[in-house]
Amino acid sequence: MSKKISIIGSGFSSLSAASYLAKEGFDVTIYEKNKNIGGRARRLSKDGFSFDMGPTWYWMPDVFEKFFADFRKKPEDYYELIKLSPAYKVIFDVDNSVSISDDFNEILQTFEEIETGSSKKLSKFMNSAKVNYEIAINNLVYKPGNSITELITLDTVTKIDQFFGTISKDTKRLFKNKNLRQIVEFPVLFLGAKPSNTPSFYNFMNHADFGLGTWHPVGGMYKVVEAMHQLALELNVKFATDASVEKILVKDKTVTGIVVNGEEIKTDIVLTGADYHHSETLLDIEYRNYTEKYWSKKTFAPSSLLFYVGFNKKLENIEHHMLFFDTDFEKHAQEIYDNPKWPKEPLFYASFPSITDKSFAPENHEAATFLIPIAPGIEDTDEIRETYFNKIIERLEKLTNQKLTKNIVFKQSYCVNDFIEDYNSYKGNAYGLANTLLQTAFLRPKLKSPKVKNLFFTGQLTVPGPGVPPSIISGKIVSELIVKSQKK
Ligand SMILES: Cc1cc2nc3c(=O)[nH]c(=O)nc-3n(C[C@H](O)[C@H](O)[C@H](O)COP(=O)(O)OP(=O)(O)OC[C@H]3O[C@@H](n4cnc5c(N)ncnc54)[C@H](O)[C@@H]3O)c2cc1C
């Protein structure tokens, strides 16, 4: 009889692991506490509008291709992809913005127009970013993070300095223009830390940006969740929703089962894709790998204040993805990481998917998602949310030169308290544990429990890190560990 695996949570990492494990012949069931699957990537549908509640940037299409290829499938078997051009637009002021083309030669031209000589420097930087992408994404990120030796390869020993330099030092050395530096620093924000705290080697994210481009799955990022759900069903994975796991049962230092909504379910193996900190609270203290002190000392990726907004008209002067960098980047970063508090003048991100994709809004309407990155764990009240909504709408009106407040027909906010309530997220973090030098690879929380046999972890708090592609990879790596552990 096949061994029974219970997976906690239905985020990308769990969905990925479920398919790999089912393919290996395990009897897999996913238990998800919410009504809908997808974790932080759920979809909100209301009044004819549709919103991706979490991820909106489809980067690193090669990782998705590799995932589906492992099952002899292609992303196109499940969803259609559009390459966005411009990929995104960065707003620095009313009359100062930069559109990033989907063509690298055009990006070089844009840089050169802003700073003479910068295109040559960008070209050189991007060559290194491409090499690092190949080393990282084709090799390093697929390692389980067991030991430092995984990082020492013929390719990486020559790049040791890049683990100790930082992205912000590199951009300062390369570009005088502050706006160009911010554009080049933007992709590493996906890793959850400040560019001044992110190793130079992570410039592979710049290859993901300028090299591989920004894509949009028709129907939104939730289409990818639906695709992975369908694949898992094709492989006979079972799904239980509204199924909150309350306890992981252990006997003789070995997993024996889980308690779901008060009911005991026997299982041979438990894999949890819920936030690592929460997963450990499902264990008796003696079986936990990490203490509260350990978690409190970690650099968490930001939480977010989000607004899902529907307008009853088409908006002007907007693009699919827009970064509002019209305030002080460094100051906002300090208010997230160094001195956690509500930012005085926040940068924000806006997505208007209905420009590209009709499924997001009724005709002649626009769907928008606004995101302000904030420190995890800060006070979250309706009044604070409203203050920030007014701040960003006022700026949006001014920067895009149009009146909008009277055209809002739908609005819903999402913040720290929702992340905790919906996902059992530690301090309401949005993107898990940041990828700093001391939180990279073997220095991240472990995929395999050293204290309990047949207990495994996956997701954005473990290896390789935050983001949809890394979460999919995390599911693959942990499933390989599980398969190996059962062969012993
Ligand atoms: C606002 C936002 C924007 C983002 N933007 C991007 C982007 O543009 N591009 C990108 O690549 N990435 C982005 N990310 C990051 C990306 O979404 C995440 O890294 C990824 O979705 C995490 O997947 P996961 O499997 O680790 O965890 P999750 O998606 O958090 O899944 C964990 C699941 O476990 C469930 N769970 C928790 N406790 C229990 C329990 N006790 N019992 C049962 N189930 C439980 C939760 O409900 C949840 O469904 C964004 C994230 C957020 C929040």
Features:
single chain; alpha/beta; FAD/NAD(P)-binding domain; Guanine Nucleotide Dissociation Inhibitor, domain 1; seven-stranded mixed sheet; binds flavin-adenine dinucleotide
Report what the structure shows.
The model has no long low-confidence stretch (mean pLDDT 96). The protein is globular and about 65 Å long. By secondary structure, it is α/β, with parallel strands linked by helices. The protein has a seven-stranded mixed beta sheet with strand order 7-6-15-16-17-14-18. A five-stranded parallel beta sheet has the order 9-2-1-13-19, covered by helices on one side. Strands 10-11-12 form a three-stranded antiparallel beta sheet, with no helix packed on it. 50% of the residues are buried. Among the domains are: 167 residues, FAD/NAD(P)-binding domain, CATH 3.50.50.60; 110 residues, Orthogonal Bundle (Guanine Nucleotide Dissociation Inhibitor, domain 1), CATH 1.10.405. The structure holds flavin-adenine dinucleotide. The site of flavin-adenine dinucleotide has 37 residues, from helix 1, strand 14 and helix 16.
CATH topology of the domain at 4-39 and 222-297 and 433-487: FAD/NAD(P)-binding domain
**Architecture per CATH nomenclature, i.e. the level-2 architecture of the domain at 4-39 and 222-297 and 433-487:** 3-Layer(bba) Sandwich
Question: What order do the strands of the largest sheet run in, or round the barrel if closed?
Answer: 7-6-15-16-17-14-18
Major β-sheet profile: 7 strands, mixed
Distance between the termini: 18 Å
CATH class of the domain at 4-39 and 222-297 and 433-487, named Alpha Beta
Which runs of at least 5 residues are low in confidence (pLDDT < 50)? none
Portion in beta strands: 15-25%
